[in-house]
Design a protein that fits this description.
With 325 residues, the protein is mainly α. The chain has 14 helices and five strands. It is 47% helix and 4% strand. 41% of the residues are buried. Pfam families: peroxidase (PF00141).
Length: 325
């Protein structure tokens, strides 16, 4: 009897894996109601786990928002950033721009609950999309209806992850990088407002505050303050600094006010303001009108979340976000 039960359990797992796998790239239309029939409690589960995690460690909220960006910007929003490396494949986690990513354990916990409630149904990519949306709301930012139905890639691309937007990029490079992903300058400027929360390490802002990258568009007192926690020299350790000094854990429009004051932490932040024209007008509008920023940010997040894996990508619904089925 025990052997029979074990055989049925093994068969059931194989069937779940087979149902979860697909050979196409998930090129169907996303919908906020995608799981209404198959897993109606998905959003409640994600929100409950997120509320618990953020209450005990608020810094996990901006970490998950960043994780979603880094997933979508490498071959679309396909959960590839969540995969561990194996003897046969590298992991995007090992790319230099991803070295400081965190929050993976939160996605794993949400996924574990969903696998209990709705086995082989909700993709890791959708879990991450919902978690990032809830992270923003829990920090005081906007909420929005998140289209769902993404699939999980069976492969990762470490090389592409090495080419994520750099903290040293200028405006032209940033516009080009976002345009390649179907996002325009307005989307880019709104999405950059995610830096109204969270922290950056010294290695990412050292060149700006010491002027070694040629960036002179910086308030001298701000540069001096940041140098106190970030010693000169590439071999020197340095501390973390908030993107927004005034409200570092509140999702508001203070980021844009900092740019106007030439107090953007990264060179790529400050690159959004100071050249004049329509770009400066956009930053100034967001600095005055927090509601307009919130609306445009939510719209841009949906647009970014719609970036699909490239044609021919093999996808599935992973049972474990760290590994393929």
């Amino acid at each position: 009897m025990a052997s029979s039960k074990g055989s049925w359990a093994a068969l059931a797992l194989l069937l779940f894996a087979a149902l979860a796998s697909t050979a196409v790239n998930g090129d169907h239309k996303l919908s906020a109601r995608y799981y209404d029939e198959t897993c109606p409690n998905v959003q409640r589960v994600v929100r409950a786990v997120m509320a618990y995690k953020v209450a005990s460690e608020p810094a996990v909220a901006p970490a998950l928002l960043r994780l979603f960006f880094h997933d979508c910007f490498v071959n679309g929003c396909d959960g590839s950033v969540l995969l561990d490396g194996t003897h046969f494949s590298e992991s995007e986690k090992d790319a230099l721009p991803n070295a400081s990513l965190r929050g993976f354990e939160v996605i794993d916990e949400i996924k574990s609950v969903l696998e209990h409630d709705c086995p082989a149904t909700v993709s890791c990519a959708d879990v991450l999309a919902l978690a990032s949306r809830d992270a923003v709301a829990m920090l005081g930012g906007p909420a929005w209806s998140m289209p769902l139905g993404r699939m999980d890639s069976r492969t990762a691309d470490r090389d592409a992850a090495e080419n994520l937007p750099s903290p040293h990029d200028n405006y032209t490079s940033l516009v080009s990088t976002f345009r390649e992903r179907g996002l325009d300058a307005r989307d880019m400027t709104a999405l950059s407002g995610a830096h109204t929360v969270g922290m950056a390490s010294c290695v990412n802002y050292r060149a700006r505050v010491y002027g070694s990258d040629g960036d002179t568009n910086i308030d001298p007192s701000f540069a001096e303050t940041r140098r106190q926690s970030c010693p000169a020299g590439d071999n020197e350790d340095g501390g973390m600094a908030p993107f927004d000094e005034q409200t570092p854990m509140t999702f508001d429009n203070a980021y844009y006010k900092d740019l106007i004051a030439r107090r953007g932490l990264l060179s790529s932040d400050q690159a959004l303001y100071g050249s004049g024209g329509r770009q400066d007008d956009l930053v100034e509008m967001y600095s005055r009108d927090g509601k307009k920023f919130a609306k445009d940010f939510a719209k841009a997040m949906v647009k970014m979340g719609n970036i699909r894996p490239s044609k021919g990508t093999t996808v599935e619904v992973r049972l474990n976000c760290k590994m393929v089925n």
